[in-house]
Amino acid sequence: MAPLKIPVGISDFKKLREDGYYYIDKSGLIADLLTNNSEVTLITRPRRFGKTLAMSMLANFFDIRKKSPNLFTGLQIESRPDR
User: What is the CB-side half-sphere exposure of residue 11 using CA atoms within 13 A?
Assistant: First the structure.
């Protein structure tokens, strides 16, 4: 097994998953957003905290034009009973 690469400056979820970069699973955010009944969700974090990567993950999950179901294999969202 090849060692995982450190994704310095990469905020494209698909690239991280397909090219073997180290990734801390934040896919639970998807379930949180789906079960939240608010009209607006505001995500505030400091600079370089993964906001763009989170939006890229959400885009890959929800955009039906992107055919990439394997991107979420082995992640937390895949094992959710309510998916």
Answer: 12
- How many Cβ atoms sit within 10 Å of the Cβ of residue 2? 5
For CA atoms 81, 28, 72, 58, give the dihedral sign: positive
**Which residues face 5 on adjacent strands?**
21
Query: Residue 71, SS3?
Result: helix
Answering whether pTM is above 0.85, one says no
Q: Residue 65: which residues within 8 A CB-CB, separation 6 or more?
A: none
Q: What is the pLDDT of residues 21-74, one digit of tens each?
A: 999 999 999 988 888 888 998 889 898 888 999 999 999 999 988 877 789 999
